[in-house]
Write a structure and sequence with these properties.
There is one protein chain. With 583 residues, the protein is α+β, with helices and mostly antiparallel strands. Helix 2 packs parallel to helix 8 (483-497). The longest helix is centred in the middle third of the chain and has 18 residues, at 366-383. The two termini are 13 Å apart. One of its GO terms (molecular function) is metal ion binding. This is Apoptosis-inducing factor 3.
């Protein structure tokens, strides 16, 4: 491997991992729902209400296992080891002379945390960057909702023992203790303490965080979707997923913790003076605190024939499922080499008869990953039968008997198409706020501060629809429309609804999955002026550092774990990585 040593003593050794293909993206539906475990073929819901450590957490002595797992000298400081207790595994960690034991699997998609990054009291997942406190198991950065179980460690005669609940060893996750709503019965239907508009990651994490912090008043979430909150990134990565499989929480969870969800309800306007949200159907709801987490609306094509049947934006599980059905053994045209467009192309490549991708730039992902990485990814797609039509756009869609038949390009080329997927970007879903007095920028983003507060007291905003000051880039106001950041925004908003005064300081982390391979990315590369690549682009085994003048502002990698999580930890500690450290 090579070393890079930033100005502050941060040594990151990059060792090329041995050949191993993570199961992360391979069995999309085996791991689809973080809450359902297949046990002997039957689905079983596990849901733990956590017990405070003070009371004996092991009510049932039969549920407890205690085992000696190693010798005191087996672990150096800063080392992690997966240990087996017979009926399940734990992650044993030694830091500053102390031993800690927590769950060994990331509750998000089950990544082995022993392959992650340990730094100053927390472990960061190697796959998607979630962080857990090694002392408590609590989740500190996202994605995912649950924390790790924490196990008791004791040392006797130079031997390390772990005492754990068998159930926790089996589930490998812990839902933090949550308050309930004290007095639902005496509410008027049309008023709530907290109203959350939008039921994506930001909205759900906000609601859960309020309950975790002991908030016991009414919480109402509303969504235009038909479904309870689900894992939306899965829609383009494993398009066959059914809503139940990708639910972030089972229905019972919302009942247990009194989080009310109104589905298929669209807010048409917000009156911030009288603190009322007006719904499209005329229903009005009064609130005390408001979170706006409405996310994005996909852009549509502006050409002739855009309203035709079989032309899709992928927005819901129904859209994704329908596209797979229509595309199987047929001709697919995808417009836009965006994350969504490329993931859909990869998913359909082995199912469709043909997949064509139309893009204005000359290389996919050019703005995001740069020319060289974009080219390497493009080659991987071409090797998997995806045909690119670059530096052109769609001039019209043609039909036969009301159904899509051909896509005509400005270059004059005519592509056969039974189904067309449009992935040409998105705009913030903030039109309903136009007259509200809430501060919105020229692109339609809601402007918030580091506490997720808008210019109106008591009104917060989070997720894809906002711009916020990014500590990493000198508090420049940025929009980060990614899954991890939406979770973090929701958490910060909730803490500040409760007047904690918490400011956001997270490092953006995202991933894309194509043909069973992942590209991981951390930082904020906007405006990068150079890319330093280590490893081998042709072999798709590389790490790319994105620099602006002298500073590394972002990193991307393929088959090079856990380098992105390592860099994310360095940046999260507020350290600067210089270009010369990575060259």
């Amino acid at each position: 491997g090579f070393w890079f040593v930033p100005a502050v003593e941060v040594k990151i050794e990059v060792v090329i991992p041995e050949k191993e293909r993570s199961k992360e993206e391979m069995s999309p539906n085996g791991k689809a729902s973080p809450l359902i475990y297949k046990v002997n073929g039957t689905a079983r819901h596990y849901h733990l209400e956590e017990h405070p450590i003070a009371s004996n957490p092991y009510h049932n002595p039969k549920d407890v296992v205690e085992a000696s797992v190693c010798h005191v000298k087996d672990l150096e400081n800063g080392q992690m080891r997966e240990v087996d207790l017979g009926c399940g595994k734990a992650l044993l960690i030694k830091e500053s002379g102390e031993f800690h034991a927590v769950g060994h699997k990331c509750p998000h998609y089950g990544a082995p945390l022993v392959k992650g990054v340990l730094s100053k009291g927390r472990v960061r997942c190697p796959w998607h960057g979630a962080c857990f406190n090694i002392g408590t198991g609590d989740i500190e950065d996202f994605p995912g909702l649950d924390s790790l179980p924490r196990f008791q460690v004791k040392i006797e005669k130079e031997k390390v023992y772990i005492r754990a609940s068998k159930q926790a060893l089996q589930t490998q996750r812990r839902t933090k203790m949550m308050a309930k709503c004290i007095s639902l019965s005496n509410y008027s239907l049309s008023s709530t303490n907290v109203l959350i508009i939008g039921a994506g990651a930001a909205g759900l994490v906000c609601a859960e965080t309020l309950r975790q912090e002991g908030f016991s008043d009414r919480i109402v979430m509303c969504t235009m979707d038909r479904h309870l909150p689900y894992d939306r990134p899965k829609l383009s990565k494993s398009m066959d997923s059914h809503p139940e499989q990708i639910a972030l929480r089972p229905k019972e969870f919302f009942c247990t913790y009194d989080i009310e969800v109104l589905t298929e309800m669209q807010v048409a306007a917000v009156d911030v003076k009288s603190k009322i949200a007006v719904f499209k159907d005329g229903f009005k709801m009064e609130y005390n605190k408001l979170l706006i987490a409405t996310g994005n609306t996909p852009k549509t094509l502006s050409c002739k024939g855009k309203e035709m049947e079989n032309v899709f934006n992928i927005r819901t599980p129904e859209d994704a499922n329908r596209v797979v059905k229509l595309a199987t053994s047929k001709n697919v045209v995808i417009v836009g080499a965006s994350f969504l467009g490329m993931e859909v192309a990869a998913y359909l490549a082995e199912r469709a008869h043909s997949v064509s991708l139309v893009e204005l730039e000359h290389v996919p992902f050019k703005k995001f990953f740069g020319e060289r990485v974009g080219r390497a990814v493009m080659k991987m797609f071409e090797n998997n039968r995806v045909k690119f039509y670059m530096q052109t756009e769609v001039s019209e869609l043609r039909e036969q008997e009301g159904k899509l038949k051909e896509v005509v390009l400005k270059s004059g080329k005519v592509l056969r198409a039974d189904v067309c997927v449009v992935g040409v970007g998105a705009v913030p879903a903030t039109g309903f706020l136009k007259q509200s007095g809430i501060n919105i920028d020229s692109k339609g983003f809601i402007v918030v501060n580091k506490m997720m507060q808008t210019n109106i007291p008591g009104v917060f905003a989070a997720g894809d629809a906002v711009t916020f000051p990014l500590a990493l880039r000198n508090n420049k106001k940025v929009n980060v429309p990614h899954w991890q950041m939406a979770h973090m925004h929701g958490r910060i908003a909730a803490l500040n609804m409760l007047a904690h005064g918490t400011e956001i300081s997270a490092v953006p982390y995202l991933w894309t999955a194509m043909f069973g391979k992942s590209i991981r990315y951390a930082g904020h590369g906007e405006g990068f002026d150079d890319v330093v690549v280590q490893g081998d682009l042709d072999e798709l085994k590389f790490v790319a550092f994105y620099t602006k003048s002298d500073e590394v502002v972002a990193v991307a990698s393929m088959n090079y774990d856990p380098i992105v999580s390592k860099v994310a930890e360095v940046l999260a500690a507020g350290r600067t990585i210089r270009k010369r450290d990575v060259e």
